[in-house]
Amino acid sequence: MPDAHAEHFPGPLHQPPVASNVDAIQPGVHHEHPVHPKLQHHFDDMEQQVEASTLGMWVFLVTEIMFFGGLFMAYIVYRAAAPEAFQEASHHLSIGWGAFNTAVLIFSSLTMALAVRAAQTGQPARTQVMWLVGTMFLGTVFLGVKVIEYADKFAHHIVPGPYFDKSAWTHPAGVEQFYSLYFIMTGLHALHMIIGIGLMAVIAIMAWRKHFDSTYYTPVEVSGLYWHFVDIVWIFLFPLLYLIGRHYHG
Amino acid sequence: MDAHHVPSLKLYFVVFGILMIGTALTVAVAFFDLGPLNNVVMLTVAIVKAMFVVLYFMHVRWGSRLTWVIAGSGFLWLLIMFSFTLMDYMSRGWLQGTLR
Asked: Which end of chain A offers a freer environment for a tag, N or C, measured as fewer CB atoms within 10 Å?
């Protein structure tokens, strides 16, 4: 009984296929616009496909906002409990390295935006790869500076734990709390940078193999969203960690 | 609502300039003791910088309404988390018989 299913599952299954997807279902049927090779069969057109991808990335970024948001919440609560200690602790961080890294990340956001634009405007693969590699390079510079900063903290026994030097501070408990937050927040941020650089490597290889042009550049666009998000996290981390203790006089 | 809007190079450089100036401003202000105003200035600058990144570098300026809603919801939920948590922490001890 071939028609038995029709009675149980009426509706979408038996509606005529959408015009632009005719090829996927009935090969050889003629229609006006040829289907873009990068269009997946479950989307109506390229416009809908890029909308869906962008939206999906934004939903992921919202979960990321909440992920980092919990740490910012902890920062607010503990700083409100020990404002003096947080100023004393922040005073030790190098404002020079912090500001330098902020500039590096903003610069990397610019090169990222230009990478997306290069794909968008159909620039040659070499140009797209150049901007992507530039972004990766700046991300690596950022991580290199973080290594210098972290090494300084280990050398001076500022890392929370059994080797934390309590005698060096007026408010040791609060300072240790600050540096716990410092390491987990900048550490999680650095982890996101490492993932971002890996992501850019994949995108750069795809760009090199001429995957992207002005009609299809979604992977560049959504990876760019991720990269800019990581930049935004740093835009808040920098003042909250580095700038609150400049005029502290212990 | 135009997912394929191509922003001009000039616009990108202007946004980059604004972000750099904002960074310089927030660093400069940090060296002056303005009391609680220091926090207000640094957070205002950070929020303005973040908005420029979201609107222009992340293309939300030309995004669909649904993108606006999703992006906005992230910050709305963040605000709810902050305000509800602080409602607890800040009001402790206001009433007799509470823990602190």
From this structure: N
- Give me the pLDDT at residue A7, please: 47
Do B71 and B58 belong to one domain? no
- Mapping DSSP to helix (H, G, I), strand (E, B) and coil, where does residue A175 land? helix
Are the Cβ atoms of A224 and B58 closer than 8 angstroms? Answer: yes
Cα dihedral value A148, A131, B70, A182, nearest 10: 0
Q: pTM for this structure?
A: 0.86
Tell me: do B69 and B95 sit in the same domain: yes
Task: Please report, in angstroms and rounded to a whole number, the separation of the first and last CA atoms in chain A.
Answer: 87
A110: helix, strand or coil: helix
pLDDT above 60 (res A146):
yes
For A213, the 3-state DSSP assignment is strand
Sign of CA dihedral A31, A33, A36, A42: negative
Number of domains in chain A: 1
| Residues ≥6 apart with Cβ < 8 Å to A80 | B89, B90
User: A84 near A59, Cβ under 8 Å?
Assistant: no
The per-residue b/e assignment along B54-69, b for 16 or more CB within 10 angstroms, e otherwise, is bebbbbbeebbeebee
**B93: containing domain:** 65-100
**Residue B14's closest chain A neighbor by CA?**
A110
Q: Do residue B72 and residue B44 come from a single domain?
A: no
How far does chain B reach from its first CA to its final CA, in angstroms?
Answer: 52
Average pLDDT, rounded, for chain A: 88
Q: A216: burial class by Cβ within 10 Å (0-12, 13-18, 19+)? A: middle
Instruction: Give the amino acid at A90.
Output: S
Amino acid in the structure at residue B60: V
* Distant-in-sequence, close-in-space partners of A64: CB < 8 Å, separation ≥ 6: A229
Give how far B73 is from chain A: nearest CA, Å. 8
B3 plus B42 within the same structural domain: yes
- The Cα-based distances of A234 to A106, A186, B41 in angstroms read 10, 8, 17
Number of independent structural domains in chain B: 2
Same domain, B29 and B55: yes
Global ipTM: 0.91
Residues B28-40, mean pLDDT to the nearest whole number: 91
pLDDT above 60 (res A222): yes
